[in-house]
Each structure stands twice: as structure tokens, then as C-alpha cells.
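Renewal narrative, Specific Aim 1. Our central claim is that a sequence can be written position by position from structural information alone. The example that follows is taken directly from our test logs and has not been curated for this report. It begins with the C-alpha cells describing the chain, in the order in which they were read.
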């Protein structure tokens, strides 16, 4: 699961995220997808294609975070996006498909931004720091992470569970790729990749719950710095201070 910091989202402000590390820039807060203010619907010029889908998705993330899954209505999303309810129904089909659709879009957007940032990183250590930044929520109001928790709380059929598994697997694969690169360069200890990823993700998920819950311990300390230091200790090559 993830959230984070970044540059503006395609079409509006795109930021991950999911939360923080060295060198991710100074864009909007990682977990906070831009909250669109309700706008008047111009029925003569409704957006189309990627523009419409992106606008609808960003509005949905904000409305779901604000109202919760049970109370959200298609008309609420339409108002936030400045689109007609019919146009929203065209993109989402029906409400019970809404959450997975929005989460998948959010994660694809976030993942592409993490990968661009990682491509510019100077070392595996910087990529690890970026991974933690994009994965952790930065505050209890993190909209992207709130979406994750609300989707996980729903009952899903086999297809829905597979979507959630695939979304989680992608982040684990990214972390394993960073680990393997660091090991190959002799910058990380020779730990077992599968076991390391399981431990790392379990820790990050636990910290994420703490941050979202608003635990007092993270009001004056950085969950990101704590997590990164723990991972760096485990990955420090033997004999290196």
C-alpha cells in the first residue's frame, strides 16, 4: 500500500506517497491528492478521454476521503469534477466498481511518478529513500492512503482480491529491484530478497497505520526517518560503519 510526495498529477497537480526521502523535490504533500472544489458543469464542453478520466478520478479520491465509501454518491464526484453525473457514470459504470477503479488509477499514477524519480536517483540508497517516501502516508489526512484502507475494508470477489494483490505486488517488486541493484553494486548487504521485502513491507504497513491513526509519537518524530534508518541498518554491508 502506498502514498507520497511528488510533482503535479497529470492534468492538475501530480506529486507518492504515498511519503519521503532524499531528493524527491518540493511538490505538494505526498499523500494528498489535490482536493478539487466543486465547479459549475458546462454541458457544452464536457471533458473527454484522458482529461475526463483524470478529472473524475481526482475528484473521486477527494470525495471518498471526505465522505467515506458508504456515503459517497456519483453526483458528489460529478460536482467535484465539474462534470455531469451521466458523464461520471460513463467512466465508472456503477458505484460498486468505483473503488477498485479509482485505486488502480491512483496507484498507476503514483507508481509512474516514483519510477521517474528513481530513474534520476544517483544510487540505490537514494532509491530506497524514495521508496519509503512514496510508500508511507505523511499525515492522518493522506487521501491516497485513506482510499487504500477503505478499499481493503470492503468485501471483494476473487477478481477484486486479485486486483488488490497485483497492486501490492508491484510495490514489492519495486523494492526488490532496488535491493538487487544495491547488492550487485556492493552497497547493500547480501540479504535474502524475498524475506527482506516481506519484513520491510510489514514494517511500513504498520507505521502507515500509526500515521493514519494519528499516534502522538509521530507528531514530533518522522516515521519516514525511522523506517529508512531501520532498513539502512539491515542493508549495511558487514564491516561498514
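The sequence written for that structure reads:
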Amino acid at each position: 500500500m502506498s502514498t507520497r510526495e511528488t510533482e503535479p498529477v497529470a492534468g492538475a497537480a501530480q506529486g507518492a506517497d504515498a511519503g519521503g526521502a532524499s531528493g524527491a523535490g518540493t511538490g505538494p504533500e505526498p499523500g494528498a491528492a489535490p482536493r478539487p472544489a466543486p465547479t459549475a458543469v458546462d454541458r457544452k464542453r464536457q471533458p473527454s478521454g484522458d482529461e475526463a478520466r483524470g478529472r473524475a478520478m481526482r475528484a473521486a479520491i477527494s470525495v471518498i476521503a471526505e465522505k467515506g465509501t458508504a456515503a459517497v454518491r456519483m453526483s458528489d464526484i460529478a460536482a467535484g469534477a465539474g462534470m455531469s453525473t451521466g458523464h461520471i457514470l460513463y467512466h465508472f459504470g456503477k458505484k460498486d466498481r468505483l473503488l477498485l477503479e479509482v485505486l488502480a488509477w491512483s496507484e498507476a499514477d503514483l507508481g509512474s511518478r516514483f519510477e521517474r524519480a528513481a530513474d534520476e536517483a544517483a544510487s540505490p540508497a537514494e532509491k530506497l529513500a524514495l521508496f519509503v517516501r512514496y510508500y508511507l502516508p505523511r499525515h492522518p489526512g493522506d487521501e491516497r492512503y485513506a482510499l487504500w484502507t477503505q478499499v481493503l475494508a470492503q468485501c471483494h470477489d476473487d477478481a477484486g482480491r486479485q486486483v488488490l494483490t497485483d497492486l501490492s505486488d508491484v510495490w514489492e517488486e519495486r523494492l526488490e529491484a532496488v535491493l538487487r541493484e544495491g547488492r550487485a553494486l556492493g552497497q547493500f548487504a547480501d540479504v535474502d530478497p524475498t524475506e527482506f521485502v516481506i519484513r520491510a513491507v510489514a514494517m511500513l504497513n504498520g507505521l502507515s497505520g500509526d500515521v493514519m491513526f494519528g499516534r502522538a509519537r509521530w507528531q514530533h518524530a518522522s516515521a519516514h526517518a525511522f523506517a529508512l534508518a531501520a532498513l539502512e541498518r539491515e542493508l549495511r554491508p558487514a564491516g561498514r560503519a
